[in-house]
Amino acid sequence: MAATLRYNAATSPRIPSSRYRSPTCILSFFRPTKSKSARVKSDLLNLISDQDRGLKTQSDPSKRVEIISAIDELALLGEGSVTTGKSLSSTWRMLWTTEKEQLFIIKNAGLFGTKAGDVLQVIDVEEKRLNNVITFPPTGVFFVRSTIEPEPPQRVNFKFTSAVLRSSDWEIPLPPFGQGWFESVYLDDDIRVAKDIRGDYLVVERAPYSWTE
């Protein structure tokens, strides 16, 4: 006769509650936490804090690698998030970039008897409008108008429509000159990190003011 195994709950060993982990608890271990996002964000901001908006990074390849690595880590935490909605609308002030044209203007503004002030991206998702702006205090400004078409979850397509070089008492219109796209790979209440069609990177913060033409 075959032996019959009986389970006795009263005498069988129990799994200690301190060692038991529910499936929900286990899965949460692998999810990015706010604290990790805050740490990576802080690391990135520390790395770019002394880079003069990217001018110093141009001659420091190792620093560039560190910064882009931090950007990629932050992008991974933001993967799958929608960054093309209303929260994208803002006056964004540049903290750091690899865009050579902008850095050239910032570096050489002194040749024209001025200096570059805030560099901005002014985005209005509802109106499908983007202005790229470089200010030259106290009254000078160069800005490029664009139309935009958001492509969720993170891409925005843009097309330049016109450009203007303006001072307090004169204005020079310039022709539009291109189109492309950028992806906001990370976005929160304070900063935005973007990559574009040319492989350039941009880190911006929400400016404490709204820029208008």
From TrEMBL:
Keyword Transit peptide: yes
Domain Plastid lipid-associated protein/fibrillin conserved: 39-204
Entry superkingdom: Eukaryota
Compartment list: Plastid
GO cellular component: plastid
Spans traversing the lipid bilayer: none
Pfam family, one: PAP_fibrillin
Keywords: Plastid, Transit peptide
Protein's UniProt name: Plastid lipid-associated protein/fibrillin conserved domain-containing protein
Organism this protein belongs to: Rhynchospora tenuis
